Amino acid sequence: RAHTTHAHHQGGKMVMMAQKTKEAEITEQDSLLLTRNLLRIAIYNISYIRGLFPEKYFNDKSVPALEMKIKKLMPMDAESRRLIDWMEKGVYDALQKKYLKTLLFCICEKEEGPMIEEYAFSFSYPNTNGEEVAMNMSRTGSKKNSATFKSNAAEVTPDQMRSSACKMIRTLVSLMRTLDQMPEERTILMKLLYYDDATPEDYEPPFFKGCAENEAVNIWNKNPLKMEVGNVNSKHLVLALKVKSVLDPCDANDANSDDDKMSLGRESDQDDDLSDTE
């Protein structure tokens, strides 16, 4: 069962409110900054909680804008420095230019696979002249659990934005804490997918190289747990996050089980819970 939520302008009332809260307008720069920070927080938290680097590689850091404390990865060796460069230089370049469609942060047994975990961040760049933003999120292979999240871009407030960012990170952290431990031997991969119509044919961000579609496929040896962690609409950018993992302690080794598709918490700031019951 899917819920759809709509937000509409209501005549003159909105105009008055808009004038009153003019100073709280979310600029494109704010939106980019928030999304960049959210990505950092998510990737660092994944690296910390999933034990991808030793504990001493992380420093405590508070993020006043989101009122949360996080673990920040420090460039202690070639590998941690490389992950930071991918994020700060490569990913940010593609995000800033609005070319980036999906960032896949993958952990595999070895470079060619098979997959252990995948964190998929997807980005959309709505037109912000008051047109409606729509983002469709559906769980892989399951038609009945799709949610369409619609909101009028002009109506996102800084508070809503912070609140959904906070919820997304909290949900991600809670989920990761319930997964089984990572194997000692593993490889970290980062893959970027672009909006073809907007991205120049020869574009490659710093630290990334081009790859053919058939090169970037890593197989799953068993059916992973799939979960939607949430989405954040910051007016000029919408970020959604989904997680897949084979390290699911609740898995009864039944590859055909339908119980591995669930939704945690709310998909949007409206009070509509997604439920899996028919």
Describe the structure.
This is HORMA domain-containing protein. Residues 29-243 form the HORMA domain. Residues 250-278 are annotated as: Disordered. It is found in: Chromosome; Nucleus. Keywords: Chromosome, Meiosis, Nucleus. The chain has 278 residues and is an alpha+beta fold. The chain has a single domain (25-251), classed as Cell Cycle, Spindle Assembly Checkpoint Protein, Chain A (2-Layer Sandwich), CATH 3.30.900. It has helices at 11-20, 28-49, 78-96, 158-177, and strands at residues 4-5, 58-63, 68-73, 100-110, 113-124, 132-138, 146-152, 187-194, 225-233, 238-245, 261-263. Strands 8-4-5-10-9-11 form a 6-stranded mixed β-sheet, with helices on one face. A 3-stranded mixed β-sheet has the order 1-7-6, with no helix packed on it. α2 (28-49) runs parallel beside α4. The chain is globular, with a radius of gyration of 19 Å. The chain starts with a strand and ends in a 15-residue tail after the last strand.
**In CATH's first tier, which class applies?**
Alpha Beta
Record the strand order, biggest sheet: 8-4-5-10-9-11
Q: CATH homologous superfamily name?
A: HORMA domain
Low-confidence stretches: 1-13, 19-23, 128-151, 254-278
Q: Report Rg.
A: 19 Å
Portion in strands: 25-35%
Q: Count every beta strand, where a strand is a DSSP E run of 2 or more residues.
A: 11
CATH fold name:
Cell Cycle, Spindle Assembly Checkpoint Protein, Chain A
